[in-house]
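Below is a typical protein record.
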Amino acid sequence: MDIELAYDMAGTRLCGIGGVVVSYDRLGTRPRTLGAWPLAYEQLGTRLSAVGATDITYSRWSGVPHTVGQWTCEHTKFATRLLRIGPYDLRYDQLGNRVRGIGPLEIFYDQLGVRPRRVRLPGEGGLLPDDLLLTLFLVLHWQEQQG
């Protein structure tokens, strides 16, 4: 099953994952909802602290994600790359700067190789399971923030 990733008119903000809408605040700088899930941020920061009822914690010293709900996050030795979120391994391209896969998902980029355009999940079906949708959104969001 192929899932299209939709962007705004300028092509800079992720606005949809399949049929799930990503809405933004009034200034258009931060996502506010992922479908029916509200997104919460730290009071003084720009770090995402919750997606719906799923809390996100960060490492005190390096600022990298530590947990997503009940799942732990694994990183490389010096916390330069996220390797795993819960049960899902992340796969990177040869240079190690773009995520190419999350668990069973395969991510395809545009012709310039800059922006993810679609995601493939083996098998048939209409929507991504909630856990994969959450993981995909978080990985794309964090990848965009690293910029």
Q: What stands out?
A: The chain has a mean pLDDT of 90. Residues 130-146 form the longest helix (17 residues). The CA atoms of residues 13 and 27 lie 12 Å apart.
